[in-house]
Amino acid sequence: MGARANRRRGEIEAFLDGERRVLCLTLGALAELETAFAVDSMAGLAERFSSGRLKADDLIRIIGAGLRGAGNLFSDEDVAGMAVADGLAGFARITAELLQATFEAEGEASNPPVPHSA
């Protein structure tokens, strides 16, 4: 098996298409998301995520950026075709965990944004 996720680096593990993958929103991945969501700052990105009203396309972009940030070579189109246990709820859970790992203060939760699956 490949490398294990290191939570201290903001990494998580998720099963996508039946394969364990590591995801991480690196600085480059966050810059990619700033461009994709047309925001001009990290604060704008956090505000967008904290709305709790993310679209399916948003989940695809966030998970895709997380995969690429961890060195996986998947496009957003690849992510859109992936299957996850529990469907939409599973994608929302992965996204929430990734955002929490990214925005969590050392040793304590900083009330990360949590997307709603319904």
Distance between the termini: 34 Å
3D shape: globular
Q: What is the count of β-strands?
A: 2
Give Rg in angstroms.
Answer: 13 Å
Give start-end ranges of low-pLDDT stretches: 106-112
One letter per element, helices H and strands E, the order comes to EEHHHHH
Q: Which structural class matches the secondary elements? A: mainly alpha
Which short descriptors sum up this protein?
118 residues, mainly alpha, 5 helices, 2 strands, 10% strand, globular
Provide a short characterization of the protein structure.
This is Gene transfer agent family protein. Helices cover 47% and strands 10% of the residues. It is mostly helical.
Q: Helix and strand layout, with pairings?
A:
Layout lengths: L10 E6 L2 E6 L2 H10 L5 H9 L5 H14 L6 H5 L6 H17 L15
Antiparallel strand pairs: 1-2
InterPro entries: Phage_TAC_11 (IPR021791)
Protein name: Gene transfer agent family protein
Pfam families: Phage_TAC_11
